[in-house]
Amino acid sequence: MLKFVSRSIMLGLGIAATALHSAEATAFTSHLPAANHTGGAVVIVSPAAATPLARWLSDRGLAAFTLPPTATTADVSLALRTLRARAADYKISPTRLTVLGLGRGADLAAEAAYNSAPDTRPALLGLIGGGRLPADGATKLPPTFLVASSAKTAEGATDPVALWTKLRAIRTPVDIHLFPAVESPATEEWREMFFNWVRVGGLLTDAPRLALKGMVYLDGHVLPHGYLVLTPIGLAGAGPIVCRVINSTANMPIGEFTVPADQGPVAGRYKVELRQNMNRWLSNSFSGGLVQTRGSAATPEQLHFGHHRSLAPTIDDQHVFTKARTTDAQDYVIEIKPGADANLALKIEVFSK
After folding, report:
1. Any idea where the domains of the chain sit in the sequence?
2. Tell me, what's the pLDDT at 18?
3. What spatial distance separates the first Cα and last Cα of the chain, rounded to whole Å?
4. What letter would DSSP give residue 132?
5. Each residue's pLDDT tens digit, 318-336
6. Could you say which DSSP state residue 316 is in?
7. Which of 150, 163, 254, 319 is the most exposed place for a label (fewest CB within 10 A)?
8. Residue 134 · residue 115 · CB < 8 Å
9. Distance in angstroms (rounded) separating the CA atoms of residues 305 and 185
């Protein structure tokens, strides 16, 4: 067992766990990857022993740090500050720290992540079987991964759907997964879901993420509704990127997609998958931003699509395209270039025949 006092620290960088102590904090235990270290780190807050979960994460390249069952909200915040201060010693990124809370630990993790100063919050937050609502007026909260039971919420516990709703209302990215019972062995699959989520969230790479903007075309016309999925090729730690072509916002051109930098890809090659949801815009209300010309000539897209009030499907099923042309032997691949403004005029075009 190695100790540090008054912010001095002695390190053991092997796979074995190392218990650390501070004069101002409770003990926490580290499980550091022996290989494939991604630089990402997860602080686990659990009312029970979390060693198996920590080892599972370290086997996948993440540094895992477990707090004991007696931990408090203050201990969670102090662990984050300590790890940021000693990031170089642990070979982790100070900007890629996630807090993962289970059961009562999820309550502590949420309190520390939502209701602390913005500069002390984690980059990502996982809440498994618990949580707390953020205070009214809270902003700039970390993207959140929720796992909860679909059964009736116990008296006094935070309703996971209410938490999901509040986070969405303040535009915090949030994923929720409901199971019949969180304690069920079947829900162990949440670990893989969580790992994929942090990979998409950028926890496994320190490469800068880039904003995207562009237009999608199918058979010579802009795509009115669908998804563009970009899967990285040979980029360690990078996750897939989903670009939505929804066109539900006034004054947004039909066929356009945008991805902010904090949700965007890193530079490199990506395989393109285009998913077409419909072949004309559907709406149950008239959207002036999409169809009105306000005195100017109608655009080619307006003339082609018009405006449709019917809600009936316009294609038989979702159509998926992975090649620019159906006769191509190779997958459709694009290059995302480095530079903050290098990918703001992308053109994605496929043909169904």
Report:
1. 18-200, 212-350
2. 42
3. 66
4. -
5. 999 999 999 999 999 999 9
6. S
7. 150
8. yes
9. 50
Per-residue pLDDT, 65: 96
The stretches in the chain having pLDDT less than 70 are 1-26, 182-187, 248-251, 281-313
CA distance 144 to 197: 10
Q: Find tokens 């016309």 and name the residue.
A: 221
Domain 212-350 classified CATH 2.60.40?
A: yes
What is residue 12's predicted lDDT score, i.e. its pLDDT?
28
For residues 64-84, b (16+ Cβ closer than 10 Å) or e, as one string?
bbbbbeebebebbbbbbebbb
- Letter for the amino acid at 212? L
Q: Under CATH, domain 18-200 is a member of which superfamily?
A: Alpha/Beta hydrolase fold, catalytic domain (3.40.50.1820)
DSSP state of 129: S
> What are the structure tokens assigned to 66, written together?
């477990």
Nearest residue to 131 (alpha-carbon basis) of 181, 173, 176: 176
Which two tokens mark 91? 């070979």
| Token output for 258 | 């945008």
